[in-house]
Automatic annotation (TrEMBL):
Annotated region (Disordered), positions in chain: 409-443
Pfam family, one: Glyco_hydro_1
Name of the protein this chain belongs to: Beta-glucosidase/6-phospho-beta-glucosidase/beta-galactosidase
Organism annotation: Microvirga flocculans
GO BP term (any one): carbohydrate metabolic process
InterPro entries named in the record: GH, Glyco_hydro_1, Glycosyl_Hydrolase_39
A Gene Ontology molecular function term of the record: hydrolase activity, hydrolyzing O-glycosyl compounds
Domain of life: Bacteria
Length: 443
């Protein structure tokens, strides 16, 4: 068992479409990973990073109903297993294959769940998953802001995208657990806060601060606030759809609350409901505490970065600040199990949130796109070296029962999986009981 604190990075596999679906922004292609994947994996050893947020490109792998092209995944995941690197598998990152269309498609949840199970069966040594990355952000950018994919701007479109995305995530967790009963789900979700600029802005800020929890409330089977319940019902969610999520609450026992924090995650709200960036007013520690108080799950800081500027120290200072925040959260008694600088290399066009294809590098990586290490990469390596042996010895809460790829067939692991499979079977039966009761009442 690998049970120490997880220092991680990621290789982004975002694939949203823009221009009404005509243009796909494929970050793995634009950042050179399809050509340089072996080099990228070599960089992990250079940094002594053993945990990687990573996934196959969905649009290239899931080529039709029940049809898959595993060629790239077989190469890359085979190499990760050989290197004994622990992947947190990111199966859907901001986009779907052309043949599915977009997140308004009601068939998406079941189609995606079948894909998730197929992946789990092909790579049974994989234990950690983020089935769908940043569900709230994906629905917001695609169906409320009109930036990506369906490019719609309405509350009904947002609720439709959100319920389909979260249902797909929940069904994927269920299907993966059929294959790997000790699977753990690290849900990478944006942690947000909305500050009222003046008294007239208090009400819209309150609504936004309630709305930010919707994806995780549904994902973890938590009853939403009354105002959000009315919002969901008024914009297309049915009672049966809502109860689908409530009846899957036992899945939360397999979850770690991954949360992302950037300098853009806090917002100033005006009286008319318009927002602008606020900077890090509360910071990661305070906002994470709000999410933890709501869900009471172990926490992992799953994404952060900062653009390197003229001095070269801007990202270094942000890394230090985020790490100080992680330690503060941990010192208040929250089970913090990992930290992630996202991503391994610079990205492309994130300065405009992938809304335009400018092919302009965004200098936020541990390495630039020529695979030269940045100052923040050197500092992250030093941070890992300094803290990797200290944290587990200081706190029993900073552990998570992760199995290394090379140990997945060991007898103790298989016995543990069998116990969890039995427990999961009992949980599933208990989850079905309220549904049966409701059906009896209707008859």
């Amino acid at each position: 068992m690998y049970t120490t604190f997880m220092f991680a990075t990621g290789i982004e596999n975002s694939i949203p479409t823009i221009n009404n679906g005509r243009t796909r922004i494929d970050q793995m292609e634009k950042c050179g990973h399809y050509r340089l994947w072996q080099t990228d994996f070599d960089l992990l050893k250079e940094l002594d990073i053993q945990v990687l947020r990573y996934g196959p490109p969905l649009h290239r792998t899931f080529i039709g109903p029940g049809r898959y092209d595993w060629s790239f995944a077989d190469m890359t995941f085979g190499d990760l297993a050989r290197r004994d690197i622990i992947p947190i598998v990111d199966l859907c990152h901001f986009g779907v294959p052309d043949w599915i269309g977009n997140f308004q498609n009601p068939d998406f949840p079941e189609l995606f769940a079948v894909y998730a199970e197929a992946f789990a069966r092909r790579f049974p040594w994989v234990q950690l998953y983020t089935p769908i990355n940043e569900m709230f952000v994906c629905a917001q950018f695609s169906a409320a802001y009109g930036w990506w994919n369906e490019q719609l701007r309405s509350d009904t479109a947002f609720v439709t995208a959100l319920k389909h995305i979260v249902k797909a995530n929940v069904l994927a967790m269920e299907r993966i657990l059929k294959v790997r009963p000790d699977a753990l789900f690290i849900q990478s979700e944006s942690s947000e806060y909305f500050h009222a600029e003046n008294p007239a802005a208090i009400k819209p800020a309150e609504i936004m601060n309630a709305r930010r929890f919707l994806s995780l409330d549904l994902n973890y089977g938590r009853r939403v606030d009354s105002e959000m319940y009315e919002f969901l019902m008024d914009h297309g969610m049915t009672r049966d759809e809502y109860h689908f999520f409530l009846n899957r609450s036992s899945l939360r026992h397999h979850c770690i609350m991954g949360n992302d924090y950037y300098v853009t995650n806090e917002h100033r709200v005006q009286a008319n409901g318009m927002t602008k960036a606020a900077g890090d007013v509360f910071g990661y520690d305070e906002i994470t505490r709000q999410y933890y108080d709501r869900y009471r799950l172990p926490v992992m800081h799953t994404e952060t970065n900062f653009m390197e500027g003229p001095t070269g120290e801007e990202a270094v200072d942000w890394l230090w600040k985020q790490w100080a925040n992680v330690l503060r959260v941990r010192n208040t008694g929250v089970s913090v199990v990992g930290f992630t600088w996202y991503s391994l290399t610079d990205q492309m066009d994130w300065d405009v949130a992938l809304r335009q294809e400018n092919n302009r590098p965004t200098p936020v990586g541990l390495y630039d796109l020529d695979r030269n290490i940045r100052p923040v990469g050197r500092c992250y390596k030093q941070l890992i070296d300094a803290w990797c042996d200290v944290l587990p010895a200081q706190s029993v809460c900073l552990t998570v029962p992760v199995v290394r790829p090379q140990d997945h067939n060991e007898a103790p692991v298989l016995r543990h999986q069998e116990r969890l499979r039995h427990m999961r079977s009992k949980e599933a039966k208990e989850d079905e009981e309220p549904v049966a009761t409701t059906q009896e009442a209707r008859r």
